[in-house]
Amino acid sequence: MIFGLQLVDYRQFNTIVSKIVDFRIAQEQNKGNYKKFRAEYLENELRKIYRADIISGNTKTRETNDASTAKFLKTKASNMRDYSLYDNPLMLEWNTWRAMTMLDGGNIKANLKFDDFGNPMSTAQGNMADIVCDYDDFGLTVEATMQGGQRQYETEGEPVTRHLAKVKREINKPAYCLFIAPNINEACIAHFYALHKMNISYYGGTSTIVPLPLSVFIKMVEDSYKANYVPEPRHIQQFFEYSNELATKANNEVEWYNGIKEKALNWLIE
């Protein structure tokens, strides 16, 4: 958590990785007194993060009237420990949003509730997508859930479709949805496959919703970083249009799902 909350833009990725490597090296050199080492390391890192606030004297927090730098840093360190205890659904949405910003090329908005310092406090409200991406020529909603089994279908199937329809009406251009969960329920696979083909007026026509296991999504993000070129919005749109084509050709939802997972694992190979 010392470095994780700093990664809010893909351009910071190499910097954060270097910081983590340096920390691990220093950690090995201070095994005998890790608690003291970590506290000092955290304070030094916080001084860098909040350097502008410290220099300008903007060190008063809501928790206290004490505006000293020492109290300011102590409060920030305490807040960081609190954020490390977030529930899994909140951290999944938070990390998914940060991962989407790494793909670059669009305006990526998380519907999480944030505190005054840009840190997450609660998941998106029930009447909107978790994340909405605007890529100029098209839109994308991203839904992330920890739900599994039949409960996943019961709680996510219809709302995910409705959220996508809402965005389609608002932006008046093509829009797709990426649905992410640790594991994808078979009923969700069947439901989202069928929506590729069903022209439902209430949902703004057919709905291109691609469900992917979290592990596959992580692989997609890793590939975007490792690629020898910067991925563009067109690569994202091509992936979802491939899903539309595959849904038309596939004999059933299982064939479609296996095919789109395979494509996701190699989505930047042209």
Describe the structure.
The protein is an alpha/beta fold and 270 residues long. It has helices at 13-29, 34-49, 51-56, 69-83, 88-102, 149-171, 186-195, 214-226, 233-249, 253-265; strands spanning 107-110, 113-114, 120-122, 131-134, 139-144, 175-181, 209-213. The protein has two domains: 4-83, no CATH class; 88-265, 3-Layer(aba) Sandwich (Restriction Endonuclease), CATH 3.40.91.50. It is built from ten helices and seven strands. Helix 7 (186-195) packs across helix 10 and helix 9 (233-249) runs antiparallel to helix 10 (253-265).
Structure summary:
The chain has about 270 residues and is α/β, with parallel strands linked by helices. It contains ten helices and seven strands.
Question: Within the CATH hierarchy, at the fold level, what is the topology of the largest domain?
Answer: Restriction Endonuclease
Assign an overall shape: elongated
Strand order of the largest sheet: 1-4-5-6-7
Report how far the terminal alpha carbons are from each other: 36 Å
For the secondary structure, the number of strands is: 7
CATH architect. name of the largest domain: 3-Layer(aba) Sandwich
CATH class of the largest domain: Alpha Beta
**Structural domain count:** 2
What is the residue-mean pLDDT, rounded to a whole number? 83
- Structural class call reads alpha/beta
Q: How many strands, which pairing sense, and closed or not: the largest β-sheet?
A: 5 strands, mixed
Spans where pLDDT lies below 50 across 5 or more residues: none
Helix content: 40-55%
